[in-house]
Every structure is written in structure tokens, then in C-alpha cells.
Amino acid sequence: MSSITELTDHGSEPSSDSTADRLNRSCFCKTLDRTQLHTFLQADVVNEDVLATHPQLFSNTSVFISPYHAEQIRRIIGAITRVVTLSGYEQQVLEQAHKIAANGMETEGVFMGYDFHMSEQGPKLIEINTNAGGAFLNAALVSAQIKCCRVESIPLPPLKTDLEAGFMAMFLHEWALQREDKPLKVIAIIDENPKQQFLYPEFVMAQRLFEKAGLTAVIADPSELELIDGKLQYKNQIIDLVYNRLTDFTLEQKENLSLRQAFETNAVVVTPNPYHHAIYANKRNLILLSDGDALAKLGARKGDIAILQAGIPATREVTSENAAELWQERKQLFFKPTAGFGSRATYRGDKLTKRVWNDILQGDYVAQKIVIPSERGILVDGQETTLKMDLRAYVYSGDIQLLAARLYQGQTTNFRTEGGGFAPVFIADLAPD
Predict the structure, then answer these.
(1) What residues does 378 pair with on adjacent strands?
(2) For site-directed labelling of 100, which of 3, 11, 109, 314 has its Cα 20 to 30 A away?
(3) What is the pLDDT of residue 428?
(4) Residue 369 pLDDT exceeds 90
(5) pTM of the model as a whole
(6) Could you state, in order of their start, the residue ranges of all structural domains in the chain?
(7) C-alpha dihedral over 277, 337, 405, 374, to 10 degrees?
(8) In whole angstroms, what is the distance from residue 326 CA to residue 336 CA?
(9) Domain 314-369 indexed as CATH 1.10.3470
(10) Residues 6+ apart with CB under 8 A from 174
């Protein structure tokens, strides 16, 4: 399989006890060659032993899904990609967004992250994220896999070199969309206190990729940027493109002033940017995307409406008017801040206290029908156990570049679970031995 986007419809829905389900439950093989992964990471992150500093970043096992479910994921993403281009959708979303989101429309936004839970009814999209982390790390991970002894005939995901070529082409395309044939020279990878970020090794991997392509690449805190004579600069070096990893999605914090002004004046290409977050990633959009009547009024295709209603859990805004109803239904709901990220300040309704509920009512939240995550059987210290899992599709311009899983215990993904972490996704339609 050279690309997830090459999958086609595989006909009728598989049984609930599919090959992938059985493998996830009962195949305890270790597929990761940690020596090989260490070699890949050392080549890209020279001064850090990532496996030692991040012991729960990578799982030793892999995750399986059926071709049918992979196709469902592709169709959900395709339907969203079409809906967000509707003029009525864009207008409605931008009316509720920060005014800065009116900029940045020319670009597509790199590394959009579509996160899924695998239910008995198939994949359910629980949220969309801009600046989704992990793509570079997962590119290394998939190239360090050995085929499981039980699934020798199942193809491995794309290799690191192929994935990185696609990543580089994506950044070059972003540049061309806004600057056409002007030469791209300098890219800045921007995040708050970048060396303190958990995924800082990935920033270095991105830097190495850009440098291999003949570009100058820097990693910087936004406070180190200056707007001088209409040009965004870092240590007297003019920045052409910003790979934005900030979680200040509207660039309102004072440390981001120079970057915000450069973005507003089109002095630099920023990807992803506030427009991408407003159109895709604000959790309030899930209300609209899961509402068939609202989508019909916007002119969405009937087929797309059916796909989204089946693939996105019903989501509602939390208001004082529906507070009593939502409190009664809370055990079936998950509560998320509309501009949240990284599972911060998210709550399962069955765990809510009255104090937290009052905080939710004072905030800006949505309530989404809970989709219980599926599980992956795994060996931890030689003992068979199970971990929860979700799937992330890294997407550019509607096309899936890479699928990755995250294994964990607890309410949300955390990269602190023994045996957990990122895991590659194998598409399995063969009967296990």
C-alpha cells in the first residue's frame, strides 16, 4: 500500500469480529525494532536520545484496521473537505471567529489532525486539530517496523523517505499558494519555549528535513521574532515561512505580537494559521458538522450529510438554557472547550463534580456524545493487558498522508502509559494464521 488515499470501497460492511478486531485483541507480537528506530532518530535529532528521554512515546506494538474502516475514515475526511468549501459554511464559521481568521485563506494548512475512536459502528471523528503533532516521529516509527509473525502478508505503511518527501512537497505547495514562483529561503519553526516542549525532537526533525532541501531552518520562540521594515526577522534573518506549532490559535498573546502583525500584513506565510483553526478545529464546528438539517440548509450533498451524521457524534453547545438537560444526560456526554487542545480541561460527564460543572457553565464548551475508545491487547513486562486506542489521520488538502494510533490508559492520551505511545497502523484484510 503506497498511500491510504488509494483505498477503494471494499463492498459490504465487515462483521464486528473482523480480522483487524481479532488481531487487536489477541495478537501480542512486538513489531517495533527499537535499534532501527534509535538509528533513525539519532540521524535527525543529533544531541538527544529520544527513546531514553521519552520512554512512553513509542509503543512496541502496532494497530490493525480493516480496509472498510480505512475507507470510512477517508470518506469522512472527504465529506468535511467539501463542506468547509461551501460559502455558507465559511461565512457562518467566520462570523463566530476572531477577526484575524479572515486572513490566511490562500493556504491549506499543514498537518491537519483528524482524531477518531473506533466504535462497533465504525470510526467516529471526535475532533479535528491544527498543528497536529507527531507526523515526523511517526514517519520514523513506521520505517522501524518488522512484520508481525501472524500477518506476514499485510503490507507495511509507507516508508520514512516517502513520507518525508510528501511533507516537504506540502510545505513547498503552501509557499507557492501564497507566493507563487518567488524563492523560498528561510523557514522558522515556532512554538512557545520550544526546547521545553514534549515534542521538541520533532521540531529538530523538521529542521533537518528543511535543511536537506537546501533551505535555512530555525527553531524559535515567537518572542524572538521582530517585524522590521515590514519583514519578519529572527536574529536579523528574514523569515519567509512560519511552521506554526503555537496553541495560541488567534495569536493574541503579547509574545506573539510580531508574528501577528506579520501575518495580518501578509509579510510572512504562516501555516497552519488562524483561518485554518477557525474553519476546521474550533470544537463548535462539530455542532454544525453533526447536524444534518443545518448542513442541508448550507447546500451540502445528501451523501456527505449521511457520511457526517454517521461518522461524527452528535455535538451541542453548552448553554444556560440546556444546562439542566445536559446535566441529566451527562453520563453519555464528553465536555470540551471550544478552543481547547491536547485534551486540556476536557471532562467525561460520568466523572463530573458540581464544582467542575459550574466551571463548564462559565466557560465556552460543547457537549459531545461519548464514543468509548476501542482497545489493543499488548504485553507489558511479559503480562497480557489492554490499552485504549485512538487513531489520528494526518491530512493535507483533504488527502491522508499517514495514519497513526495512540495507546494509553486514563481519560485521554497522555504518553505516560507503560507500553503505550504512538503505534503504526496496518490495514489488515487477511485471515490470521
Answers:
(1) 385
(2) 314
(3) 84
(4) yes
(5) 0.93
(6) 4-306+371-427, 314-369
(7) -140
(8) 13
(9) no
(10) 107, 108, 110, 241, 269, 271
Neighbours of 350 (CB within 10 A): 11
Taking alpha carbons only, the member of 418, 145, 129 closest to residue 286 is 129
- Count Cβ atoms below 10 Å from residue 395 Cβ, excluding itself: 27
| Geometric angle at alpha carbon 45, from 44 and 49, rounded to 5° | 130
User: Residue 340, CB half-sphere, CA atoms under 13 Å: how many?
Assistant: 20
Q: Which three cell numbers stand for residue 106?
A: 490562500
- DSSP secondary structure, 367-406, as one string: EEE----EEEEEEETTEEEEEEEEEEEEEETTEEEEEEEE
Which amino acid is it at 81? T
Beta strand 186-190 with 122-129 is: unpaired
> Cell triple for residue 244?
506554526
Question: Given a cut of 90, is residue 351 above it in pLDDT?
Answer: no
386: closest CA among 374, 396, 397?
374
- Do 256 and 246 meet the contact criterion of CB atoms below 8 Å apart? yes
Give the amino acid at 160. Answer: K
